[in-house]
# Entry
Amino acid sequence: KFRQHMARTRQDYVGDVTATGDVKSWYMLHYYPAFSCPHVLRIGRTPGPGPKNTCDAHLLPSIAKKRNDTKCLVYSVGNPWHYAFELGLQSLLGNDACEIHIFHDGSVESKPNINLHAWNIKSSQDGKGDYENGKTLQETMKELGHEGRVIDILKIDCEKCDSQDWVQAKAQQILVQTRGTPVPTMFETLVDAGYMIFAKEPDIHPWRSRRHFLNVEWSFIRLHPNFSKGANNEPS
# Structure
């Protein structure tokens, strides 16, 4: 049923959004959380796109230790927005509990125990993505010596990023912001790989409404691919 809904959603996208341009209604009608996380925590105190919804974030250090990793691993792609999420995570877990990496080619202030990298993450598919001069996620993991490591949280604040790359990296949680035009293929790719939505948060800040577009924050968690076969994500 879930995959059938995906197919209908693609048709709705072509029929509804292309014809009417009503992006906000499309996002309100499609893709709701289909997995109940035991402890959803919104990390980050500032308003705007900085804070993110996480699943059982307080368990990240213990989960990493069970994998024999010394620390949990967090990748944050895009503008850190005053480090709302990253500093919030440190406040929750401790300054040195997670290895945090930020990828942004702009000028940002350095923070203790946060690793800054002056490049953006681009798609591995030629001609796609916002940052043609950046590095792919796989290239980044190799350069940083993270091949074979588990990314506990992959936080994405960019447009047209390649969800297939996220799947190959096997990130445990993907926190992504979509902007404007719906991207049904992103949802299909993630669900087919075993990711399910556990939180959805539209950004209804007035200045965005004046610009007639909508940002939506999505939180995905990686489960066994068989889980989605029994999920029912019909629009309500």
